[in-house]
Structure formats: structure tokens, C-alpha cells
Amino acid sequence: MGFGDGATVIADVGGVKLRRTVTSASYLSQDSRRVHFGLGKSARANNVEVRWLDGRVDTYSQLDANTIWNLTEGDPAAHRKPIESAQAATVSAPSRDQLVQFWGKQRAAMDALKRENDIAKAAYLFREAVALNPTHEDSRYYLANCLYAQGDTTGALEQLEDLIRTNPQSHRGYQRKGLLLAASAISTAQLTAAEESASKALALNPEETGALLLLGEIALLKGNPNTAAQRLELACRTNPRAAGGYFLRGYIAWKSNDAARARELLRAAKKARGNDWRPAGTVAEGDVRVRMHAEGSVLSSFWNKWDGSPDPAVVYAALDSAVKRRSTRSTR
Q1: What digits encode the pLDDT tens for the residues 96-119?
Q2: Contacts of 134 (CB under 8 A, 6+ apart)
Q3: Digit-coded pLDDT (tens) for 141-174
Q4: Which residue ranges make up each domain of the chain?
Q5: 20 to 30 A from 56, CA-CA: which of 43, 142, 146, 244?
Q6: Beta partners for 13?
Q7: Among residues 205, 250, 257, which one has the least CA distance to residue 229?
Q8: The domain made up of 96-168 is a member of CATH 1.10.1040.10
Q9: CB atoms near residue 254 (< 10 Å)
């Protein structure tokens, strides 16, 4: 249903009207805006009517059962997404006892991650939770983050792929996949793959600043400063508190020998962070993974540890070295 919160969906099944309302997902629920209809022995719904909040009504005919149909406002076609994916075909619904066990593991894993900051313990518990309920999106998402923090990029990406298969409209799945691909990229082709995933995230939620910021970072790492500047400027317009966007735009200005503009953007970044902000401690290269499980940016360590200095040459020296290293690595 895309982002049709509040829309009413009416299915006609053999003359019987079934009504559902689209609601957004809660924190602990599946991150989806799907509605489900039980069709009994019917092979299809004769007619499905969607009444959108703005008054528009879209109608779709002869929608087969045992299928996920993606319906988008203004699109006259219903797009088929078969339920029987490679994963779903072998996974049955968890039993009541399994669900009780699952929620115990899930909550314990969240405590280990958020309260105890014990990533290894959290990863173990999230993996047990996934084994009990393979289609739960939160479990896979956080397991991916934990695996990446432990250095298992391949395992993390596998979890995100499973998440996206479970919910093809998972904004956070595509965005995190783009982030991990960008962070681990050693070629332009891999950066392009990261860009494609981040672009899908942005298409799913155009007002989410994180995907725009990530796309700006990727363009910068690919050696496209003009594209990066455009994306970062849009991120700042969308969210005036996007300190990272101002910070990176300042870097681009400094690289273009416009020190005055760079200083102006550094002031904007400082203002966006607010008066209560304090710089993070120096982050060793090996610690970046551990922090990234809670962040959505490839280069955030540079503005997080910035002490507010107004001198672009001093502020951007480390970032410039990092970008050059990445550029050299991706052209090998």
C-alpha cells in the first residue's frame, strides 16, 4: 500500500465485502503497511477498491489469492509480488509457544544492544529470535547491524537481503544496505551498487534526510562533487538540522578554493548541531564499525568529533585524506 496510512481497502469476494484500514507499523511490529484478506476457498478477489485519504478511489479487478499486490495511489495497475519467495516457501507461521519464546529473545536482544552495549550478546540473541520467527523485520535489521559491527559485512548484507525479500518496501533495509555497501566498497562498481540501494530507499521515503545524506556521501566518494553538493543541499533544505550536510558542503567548497563559503557552511553546521552539542572522542579506524551500527552515515565520524573550529584547512585535513584514500582504493 505504499505510504497510504488511513486509506480504506474494500475487497469483494464472491459478493461478500471485506473492509480493512491501512495503518502505519508500530515500533515492535513488522515495518509494513500491508493489509491481509482471508479469501477462504476463493481463488481471487473479484474487485478491490481503495479509498485514499484525499478522496481518490482506485479500483482493481480479479486479484489472485496467495499473492501480495502492491497498490499505489494513481497507478491503475496492481503489481504482483508472490508470497512464495525462496524463504517464505519453507517457513511456516510460528506456533504460540514459538512466539512466546521469540518475544523473550527479541526483548533480551534489544536490552543487550541498547542498555548493555554488548553487541556479541545481542547478535547471538537476535539470531535465536530470527530462527524462531524468520519474517520478523526488526530482528533481521538489528542482527545485520550487530554482525557488521563485529566485522561480518557479508553476513550483515545477507540479513538485509532477507529483510528486503520479506518486505520489498523496507526503506530502512535498502538504506542500511546502501550504507554497508558504501562503507565496504573497494571499487566504483560497488559504490554504484550502494548508490542504487540508497536511491531505492529515497524513492520509498523522499522526505527522509538520511538517504539523501548517504547519496551525497557516495557521490563524494565516487569523485562527483557537484552531484554530492546538490544532494547535500537538498538534505539541508529538507532538514535544516542536518549538520552533516552543511559540514560536507563546506568540505566541497573548501576543495573548490572557496574558503569564505566553507567557513560560512561550517558556521551553519555548528548552528544546526545546537548549543548543547559536544564533540565525540577521537574514533580509531577499527572503532568506526562499532559506532556505525547506530548511525546512518559513512563519514559521520568526521563531523561528530569536530570541535567547532572555524578554519577549513584544519577541520577538513583528516576528511580530505580519507576521501583521497577511498578514491585511490576504488580506482584499483
Answers
A1: 888 899 999 999 999 999 999 999
A2: 87, 91, 162
A3: 999 999 999 999 999 999 999 999 999 999 999 9
A4: 8-83, 96-168, 173-330
A5: 43
A6: 16
A7: 250
A8: no
A9: 21
